[in-house]
Design brief:
alpha/beta, 2,3-Dihydroxybiphenyl 1,2-Dioxygenase, domain 1, 4 helices, 38% strand, globular
Length: 204
């Protein structure tokens, strides 16, 4: 089975980005990597990264540490139909969502991350789902032409597909964008580029 082993973000300043992600979220290198690259990118890059936590207080803690480290709040933390969350933009431009399905705290605040999720915004859910199945991924959940979540196995990063415009709306940004996605997905035994231009490289 093919699954994500890590994601690599293209950043202008590798050292600064490493310091930000360590201070903001405490992410392990096996989940998130950064590399210096200068490919042009404008507007929405077509993806979001999410950190899911157990309760609102945990989400607030990560929002506070990220903002202190230099992140910008795109959508302030708030309750929603699905739970509680906020959207931030890292100094390198990547969009991060802090989210929980809970609407009330049930215990002391922690810095524990339950999962990291990469959502790719795609133009055609059906075609992209078929493409990824052909690459060896297994569908875990699928909701018509709206959302697809793949089985993650032992992967430190879960993968989902969402309609590009819907994903941008959920993140609170305009859907327009051009240039590089500025992200590379690591996993599997061979590299490929999907229907929306997202690049995968073989796992080390």
């Amino acid at each position: 089975m093919t699954y994500i082993e890590n994601v690599t973000l293209d950043v202008a300043d590798e050292t600064a980005a490493e310091e930000f992600y360590r201070a903001a979220f405490g992410l392990a290198p096996e989940q998130l990597r950064v590399r210096a690259a200068a490919e042009p990118s404008e507007g929405f890059r077509g993806y979001t990264l999410s950190l899911t936590v157990a309760q609102p207080g945990d989400a607030d803690s990560f929002v506070a540490s990220a903002v202190a480290a230099g992140a910008t709040v795109v959508k302030p933390a708030a309750k929603s139909l699905w739970g509680y969350g906020a959207v931030l933009q890292a100094p390198d431009g990547a969009l991060w969502k802090l989210a929980t399905s809970a609407k009330k705290d049930k215990g002391p605040v922690t810095r524990e991350i339950e999962s990291m999720v990469l959502l790719l915004g795609v133009e055609d859910i059906t075609a992209s789902k078929k493409f990824y199945v052909e690459q060896g991924l297994t569908v875990g959940k699928s909701f018509a032409k709206t959302y697809v979540e793949f089985a993650s196995g032992d992967s430190p990063v879960k993968l989902g597909l969402y309609r590009r415009k819907a994903l941008a709306k959920d993140a609170g940004v305009p859907a327009a964008g051009a240039g590089s996605h500025r992200i590379t997905i690591g996993g599997g035994t061979a590299g490929f580029t999907d229907l929306d231009g997202f690049a995968w490289q073989a796992a080390a």
